[in-house]
Request: fold
Amino acid sequence: MTDVRPDEIVDVFDLDHTLLNAEALWFRPALDWLETYTGLPRAVVNERFAACNKKTFTFESLFASLGVPSPHWERIERLLRGGLSSRANRSLYPFVLPMLAERRRVARLVLVTAGDEAWQRWKFEQLTELHPLFLPEDCHFVPLAGSKADRVDPYRVASRLSFVDDSPRWLEEVASRISHARLIRPVWSDTTAAADHPGDGKHWDVACSAAEIHAILTLP
Ligand SMILES: [Mg+2]
Reply:
């Protein structure tokens, strides 16, 4: 990581459910395909996919849980990755790109995403529209069992530090370590997992659109 200057403004963003409509939009056609291929009821496919996401996601774990015969795993994974790659940029939430471009004029943008490192890196690689906005050294990939606050901490000297993440787990972790960080929880309408949390409006602000995220980030 390059040095952080005290006069810099730093905006830290999560990826899944913060910038990327990961499940309801981006991954859905892959689940449609797996539903047809396996002949399993959609509810079962959804449930097993959700279970794989609760742990570190890999295609192997998904295929195994759906009973896909292992000799087909490699071929099916390649097929599904092709579709995922081609629709990645279109699966960012509405107006996220112009919001980031606007913030990029005044702030240093940082990405901190958690999950299987190879999978998260691959996901980001497909999101080519994000690449001009984030310096490579400001993209951080954290194991699910790891710490986001460890990656955010080196930016604490910035004149203003904001942390945008849909997950209360990470908001709470950053709040406990970096008390002056401004916290924003995006709650997009598609996200079924985005239930109300007691910290909403108390320990962090909630934003329901890119315009709302931008408005909170630009508060003095
Ligand atoms: Mg997230």
